[in-house]
Amino acid sequence: MHGVKRTRQTADDIAAKKRREQSKIEEYLALTRDVLSRKKASDWSEDAFNLTTKLLQVNPEFYTVWNYRRNILLRGLFPQRTPEDVNNLLSEDLAMTMTALKAHPKVYWIWNHRRWCLENIPNGPGSQEDGDVAGWKKKCWDRELFVVEKMLDADPRNFHAWNYRRYVLAGMPVPRPETSELAYTKRKIEANFSNFSAWHQRSKVLTSLWSSDKLDKAKSREVEFELIRNAMYTDPDDQSVWMYHRWLIGSGDDQMLLEREISVIQELLDEQPDSKWCMESIVHYKLILIRNHSRSVDVGKLTGDCSTLLSQLQRLDPSRRRRYEEIAKNIDVGPR
Amino acid sequence: MSSKLLIPLHVSYIQKLGESKDDLAYHLTSHLRLNAIYWGLTALCVMGHQEALDREEMIEFVMSCWDDEAGGFGAHPEHDAHLLSTLSAIQILIMQDALDRVDVPRVVSFILSLQQPSGVFAGDSFGEFDTRFLYCAVSALSLLGRLDELDKEKTVGYIERCRNFDGGFGNVVGAESHSGQAFVCVAALAILDRLDVVDTDTLCWWLSERQLPNGGLNGRPEKLEDVCYSFWVLSALSILNKVEWIDANKLSSFILSAQDLETGGIADRPGDMVDVFHTIFGVAGLSILGYPGLVDLDPVYCMPAAVIEAKGLRKGWKALERRPADS
Known about the structure:
The complex is a heterodimer of chains A (336) and B (327).
Chain A: H1 11-40, H2 46-58, H3 63-77, H4 83-103, H5 108-119, H6 135-154, H7 159-171, H8 179-191, H9 196-211, H10 217-234, H11 239-249, H12 255-271, H13 276-292, H14 299-316, H15 321-333
Helix pairs in contact in A: 1-2, 2-3, 4-5, 4-6, 6-7, 8-9, 9-11, 10-11, 12-13, 13-14, 14-15
Chain B: H1 7-17, H2 24-28, H3 33-46, H4 55-64, E1 66-67, E2 72-73, H5 83-95, H6 104-113, H7 131-143, H8 152-161, H9 179-191, H10 200-208, H11 228-239, H12 248-257, E3 266-267, E4 274-275, H13 276-288, E5 297-298, E6 303-304, H14 305-310
Antiparallel strand pairs in B: 1-2, 3-4, 5-6
Helix pairs in contact in B: 1-3, 3-5, 3-13, 5-7, 7-9, 9-11, 11-13
C-alpha cells in the first residue's frame, strides 16, 4: 500500500469495520464466482460483458476479467455488430477506462486495456475510395493525446502516462510533427524544472530530430544549453538539470564546448561554494578532458583540481563518500 | 521507532496474512495472491523462519493455480496464467523443494511463446509487454534449467535498447529509467552472462543518487523515498559490486523506521500502512546490507542464496559482510 497512513484502531473499531464489510465481501465474491464460471463456460454474451463491467469497476486490477472482457468482445460481440457499432462499443470502453484511470492512475492493466481498444478501432466511417477510411481511428487517437495530457497535468511524473504518450505519438494515423513535442516538453519543464520525465522525453525527441537531420544539431544544442543554464541557476541542487546537462555534453569530443561549460559551472560554484552538483559535474567534465584531450590540456593541473574537488565532495556528501574515493583512486592510478 | 528488526513480530504478521478472509482488501488483492505468498515465504526464509507457513498447504495452493489451458500459473485458482505468477509459482516450489510437481516442458513452452519479435516478453496472451516480464521469463527459464532454449541475442538486444543516457533502463524502449527496471534488466543480464551491456559507472552513479538525506531510496530523480526501492536499487548495486556507494547505516535505519511495532510488517515509509510487498523488500534490503542474524539473499533471483548456490546458478554479486549480532 503506497502512501496510506497508518491509523490505530481499537478491537471494537476493527470488529465494526468487519461487520460493515461482510455484506460487501459476500456481494463481491458472488459476482466473482458468477463471472469466472461464465468464463469457464465460454459465455460470450452481452450479459456476461455487463457483469465484467460491474466487477472491474470494483476491482480494476482483476487482469483475468480484463482478458475475459476482451474475449467476449472478440468472440461474442464484434462478430454480430456493424463496424459502426464496434466503434461505439470501443468508445464506451475507452470512456469506462477513463473513469477508472482517474481513480487509479497507476494501474498497468487499465492502461493496457486502453491500448487494446485503440488498436481495435475499425476502419470507417468512409471507405478507401472516399478517403475517410481512418476517420474513427484519427478521432480516437487524437482524443488519446488530449486524455494523456490531462493525466500528465494531474501528475507530471506518472510514467504510465508518459509511456502512453510516446505510444500514442508513435501510432497516430496522422502523425504530429516531432517538433511539437519540443514545445510540449518545454512547457512541462518550465512549469517545474524538477520534472525529469519531461527532460528525459526531450532528450529522446532531440536525439530523433538530430539523427534524421530535421534539426541542426549544433544550433539546437546551444538553445538547450541556454535552457539548462536558467534551470541551473534557479535550483542548483536539482539533479534532473545536471543529468540533462551530462546528456547534452555527451561523449565530450568537443574540447572547446567542454571548457566553456566547465567555466560556466565554475562561475556558479563561485557563487554557491557548497554546490555538490557543480563540483561533481566539474570533476566529471575535467576527467573527460583528461581522457579525450590529454595532448592539448594541462593534465597535471586538471588532475589536481579533480582531487581537491573529490576530497571536498567526500566531506560534503558523506553518503556517497566511497564513490568519490574510488574515482580519486582511479585518477591516481592514471587513465585506464 | 526501533533500531532492531522485530523478527518474531514480522513472522507472526506474515502468518496472519492468510487469516484475513473477513477483510475486503484480502479479496480485492486475489490477483496478487501467488506473488504475495512468494513475498511472504521469501521474507520468512531471509528471517530464518521458513517453517512458519505450512509447506503442504502452500504447495497444494500453488498447484491449484495451474491454468491447464495456457500451461502456466495464474495468481489464484481460476485466474489466467501470467508470467508474474508463473515465476512466483516456480520460486515457491523451488524454495519448498517441490519442483517435481510442475510440468516443466509445458511451462517452458508457455514462457517461450510470450517472446515478441522485438525480444521483449508479453505478460500473457493479451500482450502487455515490459522488461519486468522479460526478467520473469529469463529468471524462470534459468531456475528450470532451460535457459538454452531462449534466443539470448534477441533478449539482450531488447534490454540494450531500453538503456538510457543516465545508465538506467526503462520498462520499454524509450521509457524513463526507473530503479525497478535497474533490478530486472541488470539481473536478467547477469543471468545471461551479459553484464558487458551495462555502463556500470554511469548506472551506479545514477543508483547511488537515489539515496535521499533521510537515508531512504527513491525510484527516479526528484521523487519520494520508498522502502521497496531498497531492494531494487541494492540488488543492482550488489550485482555490480557497488553497494558501498550508498550509506548502508542510513538506509538500514530508514527501513527499520518503517516497521509497524504493534502489528509487525514494514510499510513504504514511516507511519504508513504495512503490507507484505514492502515487508519482503525491506527485509531483502537489510540482508544485502549485512544486517545481523539474517540469511543471505541472492540479489539476482531474490531467493535465499543457499537455494541458488545448490542449483549451481550463483553469479558474481557481492553484498556487505554480515555484521555480528551485537553491533
